[in-house]
Amino acid sequence: MEGGNSPNLQLQQLPLATAAVSVQPHTDSFSYKENLIGALLAIFGHLVISIALNLQKYSHIRLAGSKDPRAYFKTKTWWCGLFLLMLGELGVFSSYAFAPLSLIVPLSAVSVIASAIIGIIFIKEKWKPKDFLRRYVLSFVGCGLAIVGTYLLITFGPNSHEKMTGENITRHLVSWPFLLYMLVEIIIFCLLLYFYKEKNANYIVVILLLVALLGSMTVVTVKAVAGMVVVSIQGNLQLDYPIFYIMLVCMIATAIFQATFLAQASQLYDSSQIASVGYILSTTVAITAGATFYLDFTGEDVLHICMFALGCLIAFLGVFLITRNRKKSIPFEPYISMDAMPGMQNMHDKGIAVQPDLKASFSYGALENNDNMPEIYTPATLPIVQEQHGSKGVSAPPYRVLEHSKKE
Q1: Is residue 102 part of a domain?
Q2: Residue 226 domain flag
Q3: Residue 285 lies in a domain
Q4: How many CB atoms lie within 10 A of CB 127?
Q5: Which of the four, 4, 29, 111, 324, has the lowest number of CB atoms within 10 Å?
Q6: Which positions, given as ranges, span the membrane (predicted)?
């Protein structure tokens, strides 16, 4: 009896197995398509943001170097940069709704690559063709490594896709791995904040690690808000869930505090150091938060995880080499340009302004009182040659140093 029913049982199970096999590739191809859409939106957004910031910077520089009395917000260039900035931010925001968080976050290296290329193309200083490759070899190598790392990230990125509904987000929010992760992150954040505020530990790693911890919560909430908006647009309304507004408030609050700490870091350290160290720390912490909250790497094999980690390391190295080649900004000191003064003749033949080197004595030509400075910082007076009107037998010193009193 059992032997006679076994062929019928096999025939009944055959169509089900065939249907299961035919559905799986369709699901994988659709998920990879979503990954590609999200990656392209992120790359487009970061590229447009880089162009927008450089346009606004160009607008400020052009107004500072001209006699145009207009404010920067009254120029078309600045408004064009603002429009592109909003467009780029919209592209990055939308990318979180399609691809996993761990894939979108490392793609911010595109903005560093674009800024390096724009800086090389539109560079203002003079250079010789034979010195170009030597001076910018680190930038070229860094761009190449960052591009290779980006390719590996897109190819071997996590392939977990989940509808960002209110039930799913609430379930992830109260899961014990994320609650444990949040507890550890809050403890680390409080300790770093204590050392930064009370012990004056103004190290770049401390400040940027505070930024990275806040940024991890920002990207987690951004993905939740963007995903729920896209699901609502598709027909399944999610805006009536309280979790949506909780995530929205957390997104705005963490973004504001993150910008505050980032502004404090920019006052203490160079922008190139902030770009490299901040990218490495923020990407690492954000990937950890995404893997804990959204379970991005669940079901991924070891090869894909290792290749994804390799892509992150290559991108980190590329960004480090790009930012390492940038010149450090020199603090501004208000020197007087002699040819800019009315009625003052130029002392040079070729019309070059009398402008001392910034690396020289800071007190020469500076608009500040140095009477209270120590002797080692006081500027030495220029030697003046004395003409000889006396007898030929009497030798006069070739020069004499004028000593000025404070009364004079």
Answers
A1: no
A2: yes
A3: yes
A4: 11
A5: 4
A6: 36-56, 77-97, 103-123, 135-154, 174-196, 203-231, 243-262, 274-295, 301-322
